[in-house]
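lol ok so funny story. i was supposed to be doing the assay writeup but got distracted and ended up predicting the structure for this chain instead. priorities right. anyway since i did it might as well share w the group, maybe its usefull for someone
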Amino acid sequence: MRQAGRSLPEYRELRKRYTLFDVCRRPEVCAEVTLQPVRAHGVDGAVMFADIMLPVLGMGVDVELVENVGPVIERPLERMADVERLRVPTSEEAVPFILEAVRLVREELEPERAVIGFCGGPFTVAGYLIEGRPSREFLKVKTLMYSEPTVWHALMEKLTATFCEYVAAKVAAGADVIQVFDSWVGALSLADYEEFVAPYSARILASVDVPTIHFGTGTATLLSAMAEAGGDVIGLDWRIPLDRGWAEVGDDHGVQGNLDPAVLLGPWERVETATRDVLNRAAGRRGHIFNLGHGVLPQTDPANLGRLVELVADATVEARV
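and the output, tada:
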């Protein structure tokens, strides 16, 4: 469960001393934060603690992570000259600390538990770089895509080259799975997704020889196109019933999801009902990774996460008997 550690007291204690980027730049601390939710909840894999904006720091972009806001860019990209200034660094040059953290986690974790590395999706990262901060409408992004497509594609080329090298370096360091988080790609129409994003996501997902997961939110109208772009598993958010989402994705892909993270803020009875609904819709088919439909909310009670893991494990065993 991505960001499951944010709800743990031990994580909050560490964050009193370190910013998010500070945690990432200290491999031992980064590895510890990655492993905390695995120890606490007994999940099947460790999602590496990182931020999707880390690789762009090596490209020459100044990023500040503002609490309760998100990534804020000092100089948003506006024209071709801004894109031309961007470098395409190697990961050993730009983020050696993340690669070392991957090695430490892989050494510490039991062989049967997966180390899941990730990168941001090209649209989502480009959105932050152009808008300058999180956005709902992505008006600056769409204006650039439509009016200056050569600038957009030049930016996507550089981001794609950087991310392909980044995920390949994570695999070399020990990551067993790579996930592409294109969190806000659901802001696009199907036609715009296929023209402006899909070819770049496809290249990133094809750049590694390990299983891949392709995820976005608000993507009910994009699922078949995302599956065509790539990913052995397609992430489903909570807005679409799992069986309907799987039908959109197709039987040749697995799916990940898709309990609403906010359900975990409610009473346990509702959590159990919603969880069993997800499992019933999966119907025991091979290829379902039970997960939330997005990241764990920080105010989630860690005890509920532990109960959720136990519930899913017990229900899965019951279904096989």
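DSSP finds 16 helices and nine strands in the chain. The mean pLDDT is 95.
back to the writeup now i swear
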